[in-house]
Design goal:
By secondary structure, the chain is an alpha/beta fold. The protein is built from three helices and nine strands; from the N terminus they run βαβαβββαββββ. The protein has one domain (3-174): Rossmann fold. 21% of the residues lie in helices and 30% in strands. The strands form two sheets. Strands 4-3-2-5-6-7 form a six-stranded mixed beta sheet, sandwiched between helices. The protein has a three-stranded antiparallel beta sheet with strand order 1-9-8, with helices on one face. Helix 1 crosses helix 2. The longest helix has 18 residues, at 14-31. It is globular. It binds guanosine-5'-monophosphate. Guanosine-5'-monophosphate binds at residues 45, 70-71, 77, 100-109, 153-155, 159-161.
């Protein structure tokens, strides 16, 4: 561990994440064969997961991004979701897979689903790396889940605390 990593406790190692991403990529490859897949990453937290996941999907696919902000710099959800950037292309008639870093209360996902449904995709599904079921406020059907985790505020592999730690190759918690 470097000096930078001190004060962090590892919850999921880079190796565990890699194995899960390969597994998810294989499932998605099977499920989306013959379809018009577009993977929509939810910024900013999705970027390492999306980059790793699409390289494990052995199909022609498109990638696009939505920017959403719900947390500010705090560790508690404000419940207020706002778009910070929109898709670059329409998704009408396409098989949309939302790629998210974490589903916590479900508020962000509810907002995204209702917004994307109005754009006429052929299908709409969700792939999240992490799920914190203890915090659910809105039940949303999650089609692909990497890991179910306890109610801890996690950082790394795209997830931040006050915009820092996104570059950690593992997922951890601050403190012990
Ligand atoms: P939800 O709307 O489901 O409560 O929260 C979704 C968003 O909140 C995630 O995309 C993420 O940005 C943020 N979030 C929720 N839990 C955590 C966490 O444990 N760590 C970090 N860094 N962000 C979280």
């Amino acid at each position: 561990m470097s000096q930078y990593d001190q004060g962090l406790t590892v919850m999921l190692t880079a190796e565990q994440i890699h194995r899960k991403v390969v597994e998810l990529g294989q499932q998605i490859t099977r499920d989306y064969a013959g379809k018009d897949l577009v993977c929509i990453g939810v910024l900013k937290g999705c970027f390492p997961f999306l980059a790793d996941l699409v390289r494990e999907i052995e199909l022609p696919l498109r990638v696009d991004f939505l920017g959403v902000s719900s947390y500010g710099d705090r560790t508690k959800s404000s419940g207020v979701v706002r778009f910070t950037s929109d898709l670059s292309k329409p998704v009408e008639g396409l098989d949309v897979l939302i790629v998210e870093d974490i589903v916590d209360t479900g508020l962000t996902m509810r907002y995204l689903l209702s917004n994307l449904k109005t754009r006429g995709p052929r299908s709409l599904a969700i792939c999240t790396l992490l799920h914190k079921p203890d915090r659910t406020m809105i039940e949303v059907e999650l089609d692909y889940i990497g890991f179910t985790i306890p109610d801890r505020f996690v950082i790394g592999y795209g997830l931040d605390y006050a915009e820092i730690y996104r570059n950690l190759p593992f997922i951890g918690v601050l403190g012990s």
